[in-house]
Design a protein that fits this description.
Elements: E1 5-18, E2 21-34, E3 38-42, H1 49-56, E4 64-69, E5 72-73, H2 79-89, E6 90-94, H3 105-115, H4 120-133, H5 149-161, E7 167-171, H6 179-196, E8 199-204, H7 207-210, E9 215-220, E10 223-229
Parallel strand pairs: 3-8, 3-9, 6-7, 7-8
Antiparallel strand pairs: 1-2, 1-4, 4-5, 9-10
Helix pairs in contact: 3-4, 3-5, 4-5, 5-6
Length: 231
């Protein structure tokens, strides 16, 4: 891969068994994304954008073609390799937050670093920094049921960013938020993108998200129909 390219997708096909046949969710996708991009895969429901994001995040595998992320190719990837890639290099932000309700904000954000076996003193600094990035230092001992939707999504961003991953994948991150909270979340991610040079890749059909993107890849029926940079 070129030095600046962190995602390279070549002739990607993804099919799912349906009844006695197959459904082709992605059909011949070829794309690449570089370090520090703030990009989105957009399109209507059923266009294949979440499937594509899941394959990039090694949560799913291609039927045909090759996907290389942070130097790791899907061709030779087993479950252990995929787990290591996600653990070390990829942060995920989901529309449903996926926080652990019995853990505090601090403990939710700390969890990825426990998986990495980071020393306690380093871990504490990284967690406090991440919580400060999203403006929730005053909620550090709160648990998810005590938080608003916007606050919960900010915790999810802190958890995704705490290990300073090279890549953050965000699937409809504003779907459950009102306009004010959506803009707060997007501005937070935009500033982290600029400050840390983290690549952000969204799957979305939300106009509020699309307005922030610097590159828009549009899918329809599992194919790329446009790919444009936004000034």
């Amino acid at each position: 891969m070129e030095n600046n390219t962190i995602i390279k997708i070549e002739n990607l096909v993804k099919q799912f068994p349906v009844g006695g046949g197959t459904f082709t969710a992605l059909n011949g996708i070829s794309l690449s994304f570089g370090k520090g991009e703030f990009s989105g895969i957009v399109g209507p429901s059923g266009s294949g954008k979440t499937t594509l994001l899941n394959i990039i995040g090694s949560l799913d595998s291609p039927t045909k073609g090759e996907v290389t992320v942070m130097g790791t190719g899907s061709g030779g990837m087993n479950a252990k390799t995929a787990s290591q890639l996600r653990k070390k290099h990829i942060g995920f932000i989901f529309q449903t937050y996926n926080l652990m309700s019995v853990y505090t904000v601090y403990e939710n954000v700390e969890f990825p670093l426990l998986l990495l076996k980071m020393p306690a003193s380093e871990r504490r600094k990284a967690v406090l920094d991440a919580i400060e990035w999203v403006g929730l230092t005053d909620k550090i001992k709160s648990r998810p049921p005590q938080l608003s939707g916007g606050e919960s999504q900010r915790v999810a961003i802190a958890r995704a960013m705490v290990k300073r991953p090279g890549l953050v994948l965000a699937d409809e991150p504003t779907a459950n938020l009102d306009a004010a909270n959506s803009h707060h979340i997007l501005q937070t991610m935009e500033s982290l993108n600029k400050e840390l040079k983290t690549t952000f890749l969204f799957a979305t059909h939300d106009d509020k998200v699309i307005r922030y993107l610097k590159r828009i890849v549009t899918l329809a029926d599992g194919k790329v129909v446009s790919d444009e940079s936004v000034k």
